[in-house]
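Quick question, first post here. What does this chain look like in 3D?
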Amino acid sequence: MSQLRLLPPRLGVQAVRLLSARGIPGPGLRSRSSGPPATFPGGRGGGDSSYVEEMYFAWLENPRSVHQAWDSFFRQASKEASARPAHQQLLTVVPESRSAASSRTKTSKLVEDHLAVQSLIRAYQIRGHHVAQLDPLGILDADLDSFVPSDLITTIDKLAFYDLQEADLDKEFQLPTTTFIGGSENTLSLREIIRRLESTYCQHIGLEFMFINDVEQCQWIRQKFETPGVMQFSSEEKRTLLARLVRSMRFEDFLARKWSSEKRFGLEGCEVMIPALKTIIDKSSEMGIENVILGMPHRGRLNVLANVIRKDLEQIFCQFDPKLEAADEGSGDVKYHLGMYHERINRVTNRNITLSLVANPSHLEAVDPVVQGKTKAEQFYRGDAQGKKVMSILVHGDAAFAGQGVVYETFHLSDLPSYTTNGTVHVVVNNQIGFTTDPRMARSSPYPTDVARVVNAPIFHVNADDPEAVIYVCSVAAEWRNTFNKDVVVDLVCYRRRGHNEMDEPMFTQPLMYKQIHKQVPVLKKYADKLIAEGTVTLQEFEEEIAKYDRICEEAYGRSKDKKILHIKHWLDSPWPGFFNVDGEPKSMTCPATGIPEDMLTHIGNVASSVPLEDFKIHTGLSRILRGRADMTKKRTVDWALAEYMAFGSLLKEGIHVRLSGQDVERGTFSHRHHVLHDQEVDRRTCVPMNHLWPDQAPYTVCNSSLSEYGVLGFELGYAMASPNALVLWEAQFGDFHNTAQCIIDQFISTGQAKWVRHNGIVLLLPHGMEGMGPEHSSARPERFLQMSNDDSDAYPVFTKDFEVSQLYDCNWIVVNCSTPASYFHVLRRQILLPFRKPLIVFTPKSLLRHPEAKSSFDQMVSGTSFLRVIPEDGAAAQAPGQVRRLIFCTGKVYYDLVKERSSQGLEGQVAITRLEQISPFPFDLIKQEAERYPDAELVWCQEEHKNMGYYDYISPRFMTILGQARPIWYVGREPAAAPATGNKNTHLVSLRKFLDTAFNLHAFEGKTF
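> Answer (accepted):
Ran it through. Tokens below.
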């Protein structure tokens, strides 16, 4: 039967019909009832084909239901048919006798020719893009391959390939249902079929879509491009297109004239991108989209800001004035990295549209997941589950699209339930070069867009020097996104008229290409000449359109000189209406207490230890965990997981949306969280008790991500960007896994406010701690975050009443290493209660998740309590501070090792231990207070990390600033090393023993100089 299944039933039916038509005698057969074998009815040799069809289907269902001769015949026919080309398989289903082979009937030839024509149509649909005229320069192959499929070379060759003759060109053929080239006609001559196929697939549009495994979607695309006359434009549409091209090109020309020596990363060579983007927006607006979020690299950004987002030209021109001083705080950024937010009327649809261009650095494609996260958030807050109101557009460079791994990571988020944005329109500006690198050296795939095939996104390649083809493709792309809620790629095959920037000399590395570019007629002139020739516009109208826009630019240039102050705030891409004052400052500089009423703690604890759904069977091990939570609640204590539950739950009651994302966060890497319960008997039945806390609570989203850090952290950053009234957290599986998301941390999180005046309250949860588990599962690299903290180690602060909050406002982010569940609870709530937003980096524990001493009482979390930046000693040493000989400062898990060792040595009265819960910004005021409390004590900083890592290099100069040279702070910890931790358990324990001995050796530093 395995051989049989190679033939589809429809093909088998056609085969048995042909059998009868050829007059070939078949074997005897028997009916399904008992009876002797029979020949064909009527004894005609060929017989009744319907009778044979019946036997064929009977054999398909059960080969034993027919005579052995028929069974053998069908099996042998299938073997022979499967060994020949697809369009010839039908002819071999029935082996021909010598006489039949020599005198094939007209019927069999007709069937064979029709199958050949169907195969020819399919070849164009699959491979036609390989011969499309996509390169406007006419010198390169857009797919890096000059190979032309042998079945599409020339008319003669393709006819021969399909066993057709020139005489067949004028024969009429029935068109299959998988093509729309006939329009209302069912038959066409072969000559006309080829002409229409070449017009559709081999001109200025190359279509890649036949890899899509959905028949409906393939049919939709075929209808959009194959139907005769679909690419017809009215005179008004052509005039609009021309006007948009004028604005695109003349904007670049104006900048080139005024600031010829300035880098601006202009769009010359792909000016058609501006009308392309506007078409996507127009079509989307027509279909109901109200909010479009864009991300793009630096090339063409100023043009997009001016002519798509419609930013005031004088604001753009201000950026070029070197004499203007920025009034806003922070370092700012170059003009071609800035973003924008604008609400306006779409003049084509006469509907309101909100456009947002997300600011981003030069790290190519890093903005992709950020845009997707922001889009997802906007859809969430609008209740737009299908993406019918909010959408994203991403513009890419060809080299980056193929080369940057975050593109792949972002595509793989496109259909995940908690990450999908219901389709993105991707526009690739295919310059056919990356900086100075030839595409043949920059990628292995034929096209730069091949990565999009992994999510079955159709790819529309188009020659950017054919504006009408570009506009049609963009219109179809927008409609595709709205119809199927899936990604789509528009590949604008163009060129780069200048070098990588305006100061660069491209002839060094691409001499032949740039010789052709220098001769290339600009797209605006070519299109204007075309419209003038056909009478759509006159030369005078064209020149007036140019003069009109030039005048607009000149007037804006004049106004830009009057600008006394350059405000980056005008370029904000994510405004938070009502959150700040009119001038963008916080409404207050105080933070209320972060504790909550005890009855609320009890209620959340009870829900956290229950299953809100009836008839829901949970794992027996999970039942034990829930009983443990219930027991803690009764005893008024919490562990780390329950403290997190209470922080989240209390914020949900206050209307704050909470979203926790990352690898395995639903259960928790260390099996401590269990925020999603799974029914053990019903597949995919789950329960999230957090969403059953209060009748009118905000929604809680907890979602396991794909195995990605770069893409997912970028996504969550974008999500947090959309609203200040949400707690958005990303948890690394292990703290050091943030390494692969370092670009997002460095370029967006650490510097986002300084560069773009953009607040962001994202929280990073990074499991950290030396547990003897090896170098890759130990350190979250706190030294990297502290090195990027902007508080000044040498500036002695002024301790004002609101010092804590003002210090937080001035910092670029907050870095904490909590040692108690209560601290974690408070710092999460403080993140929302602050009157501004800063990124929060939390080094979360591993062993402390279940440490019997790492528990907090309700008393530390009830109303009136707050986050303690420093937790002072509260034992015997605090009762007699004058007798304390050593004051140890530390942070995080090592505190419990120190307390245990102090107890074992009986030094409770001689050694005090103070914990820094907040490391940056540095708590100067509390550290000074603690040190002065123990005036005769030797100061020690103890950490479990190696000396060249961890916190010491950060805290040491700050201690010196606040306490002076008279009281140095000594280091106790592991010695410098290359790797953050050992992979040998015994080595780990030996080094731990060594630094604990040093920490409590009260004579360790005698005679030493600091």
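The two ends are 86 Å apart (CA to CA).
The first helix runs from residue 9 to 22.
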